[in-house]
Design brief:
Blueprint: H1 23-78, H2 80-85, H3 87-100, H4 102-108, H5 113-132, H6 135-150, H7 152-167, H8 177-180, H9 183-206, H10 215-229, H11 239-248, H12 255-267, E1 270-278, E2 281-288, E3 293-298, E4 301-307, E5 317-318, H13 321-326, E6 344-348, H14 354-361, E7 365-369, H15 373-383, E8 390-392, H16 396-403, E9 411-416, H17 431-440, E10 441-454, H18 458-470, E11 473-478, H19 485-491, E12 495-503, H20 529-534, E13 539-540, H21 549-552, H22 561-564, H23 567-581, H24 584-588
Parallel strand pairs: 6-7, 6-9, 7-8, 9-10
Antiparallel strand pairs: 1-2, 2-3, 3-4, 4-5, 10-12, 11-12, 11-13
Helix pairs in contact: 1-6, 1-7, 1-9, 1-10, 3-7, 4-7, 5-6, 5-7, 5-10, 5-11, 17-18
Length: 590
């Protein structure tokens, strides 16, 4: 209830205070005292309720932010999609138990609920680093949920119980009786979703800008905030976990933590060259001393790699043939073909820069559009990306929309090679976006699209059908030969890179213009052994390998759920493939 008017008590005489001498003066003094008492009561009420709702708001905001940071911390070990797959179930289950069982928890726990929150938060980074070593045992389907059940779940449950307890001191008498009982729950939910959505956007924009804006440091900063809200002698129990986080947690982005990580990696024949966190994930560069190659990693995927045991002549030697095959856009036979030194190329998605480096080496005026500044920086520092190119570090969808008119029929070659991580960035495969690329491609230009997908799932067919709907003439190749029926049945997937070469050309009758490749000459190889072996695509995919158009359709901007619903299954298959490409220790010790 809000404060009621109280009858003031007459204050004792104070020095310098002149007593009332008439009835009128006495009544005025009583009125003045009554007004002061009422003001003091309202002031106290506002302070008390402000403290109550301030505490509730702070607790809700903390669990909303921590929820997002938890998914980010799991992404290097499980991938972004797998890390988020069961995340909401864990969070909402914890909230339900905390809200409904707050009275029982209050009776069971030996201390106030809020006193335990800093202990859980400070211990979480240490516990996560231990649980990551079990990721191969847990598996990608259940590993993220198991990890969050042992870390995020108790934090959210006890935070929610503490919020429910705090609402007991909240004055809801100003609300109608019909909504008074449900207002706390509805209001808390709306505030949680708002902070969760807002903080997610800010994390995407801010992550990696400084050491403070990295995963483990953010967890420690949130733990410090909990500690400031619940100061007690129990905090001494968190000192070992805090020391572990500051000095022994190899996931911390500090030189000391990196040196500690390298001590372990070196024993297994690996070295971490550099790493940082960015808007697309955890980016690192790793060398294999035993096999003599270097790779760039983004969360639980590889962006590319090259042989460092082979002498670099003009360009690096890629360890994956798909990037050499993308360079075959130059080999497509088209009328009125311009020489390389007059050609212009657009490369969407950089990786380690294998393909754009080769285009630049051939003298082609190359523009690179890459969303991740750390990927671009590492490609230059550690993979020899030449400086003589145009770099656009931003989202290619926004960039293409802003520059569509000025770049009409501007490019001779377009390379569409975006990082998928087991699931495509949907906006870059819609017919609207591809139509924008068609608009930028010269009438006799060539586009090559790399798509990593599973032949056993519909998304690959949807993407292929969309590409063919936009570009009339296409040929499709896969990086390696198809698996045997026995292997396909054993693994239950057929995951591979698929390269689609297309032109805008049509035959004289208006039909499709067949795509042919000229025979490579010595200059095409850039003195590279890998290009001599893989430059010309070899494993063509027949149309029968894809589902027909009338069965799966194409991808439009307003129908993105066609692909999104397959993300979980595709990402889990990709996770299993990555665990065979590099040993589990590399993925776990991020």
């Amino acid at each position: 209830m809000p404060p009621r008017k109280q009858t003031p008590k007459k204050k004792a005489s104070q020095p310098g205070h002149k007593p009332a001498e008439t009835k009128e003066e006495f009544e005025n003094e009583l009125k003045l005292l009554a007004t002061q008492a009422r003001d003091e009561t309202w002031s106290r009420w506002f302070k008390e309720q402000g403290a109550v709702y301030g505490k509730i708001t702070a607790l809700i905001a903390l669990i909303a932010v921590y929820s997002n940071v938890s998914v980010l911390t799991l992404s290097p070990v499980y991938g972004q999609i797998a890390a988020a797959r069961l995340h909401e179930r864990v969070v909402w289950t914890a909230m339900f138990i905390g809200w409904a069982g707050n009275l029982a928890l209050r009776r069971i726990l030996p201390v106030k609920t809020i006193m335990l929150l800093p202990l859980i938060a400070i211990h979480t980074p240490m516990l996560q680093s231990y649980l990551f070593s079990w990721s191969d045992t847990f598996g990608v389907a259940n590993g993220p949920a198991i990890t969050e059940t042992l870390t995020l779940f108790p934090l959210v449950m006890l935070s929610t119980a503490c919020i429910a307890d705090t609402f007991a001191a909240a004055d809801l008498s100003l609300l109608p009786n019909s909504v008074g009982s449900s207002a706390p729950g509805i209001g808390s939910y709306l505030l949680y979703k708002y902070v969760e959505r807002t903080s997610s956007k800010q994390l995407f924009l801010q992550i990696g800008r400084s050491i403070v804006q990295t995963r483990v440091v953010m967890e420690l900063a949130l733990a410090a905030t909990y500690a400031a809200m619940a100061r007690s002698m129990l905090l001494f129990a968190a000192i070992p976990a805090l020391l572990h986080g500051l000095f022994y947690n190899t996931n911390l982005m500090t030189p000391m933590a990196t040196g500690l990580l390298n001590t372990t990696l070196n024993r297994n024949g690996w070295s971490l060259i550099d790493r940082w966190e960015s808007n697309t994930g955890y980016i690192s560069v790793i060398d294999s001393h035993r096999d003599g190659f270097r790779v760039m990693r983004c969360d639980h995927s590889l962006l590319g790699g090259e042989w460092i045991k082979l002498e670099r002549k003009i360009v690096g030697e890629p360890i994956y043939s798909v990037f050499a095959q993308l360079e075959a856009v130059r080999l497509v036979e088209i009328p009125e073909k311009v020489p390389d030194n007059q050609a212009k190329a657009l490369n969407i998605g950089l990786g380690i820069g294998t393909t754009p480096s080769a285009l630049i080496a051939h003298g082609i005026d190359t523009t690179i559009v890459e969303i991740d500044p750390v990927v671009y920086d590492f490609a230059q520092k550690y993979f020899g990306l030449p400086s003589n190119h145009t770099a656009i570090i931003q989202d290619v969808v926004s960039w293409s929309q802003l520059n569509a008119e000025s770049l009409h029929e501007h490019y001779d070659y377009i390379i569409h090679d975006v990082f998928t991580g087991g699931a495509e960035p949907i906006a870059l495969f819609t017919d609207e976006f591809l139509m924008g690329l068609r608009h930028m491609l010269k009438p006799n230009g060539v586009i090559a699209i790399n798509y990593a997908g599973d032949f056993t799932l519909p998304p690959l067919s949807i993407v292929v059908n969309t590409v063919k709907e936009v570009f009339p003439s296409c040929r499709i190749f896969r990086e390696g030969p198809p698996p045997s029926e026995e292997k396909l049945e054993e693994e239950g997937r057929d995951f591979d890179n698929v390269i689609i070469f297309c032109t805008k050309l049509t035959s004289s009758s208006g039909g499709k213009q067949p795509i042919t490749f000229r025979k490579p000459v010595e200059g095409d190889y850039l003195q590279s052994l890998a290009r001599k072996a893989y430059l010309l695509p070899q494993h063509e995919v027949p149309p029968s390998a894809f589902s027909p158009l009338d069965e799966v359709g194409i991808l439009r901007v307003n129908e993105t759920e066609k692909l999104a619903k397959w993300h979980d299954q595709s990402a889990m298959g990709h996770w299993a493939v990555m665990r065979t490409v590099l040993p589990k220790e590399i993925w776990q010790l991020w």
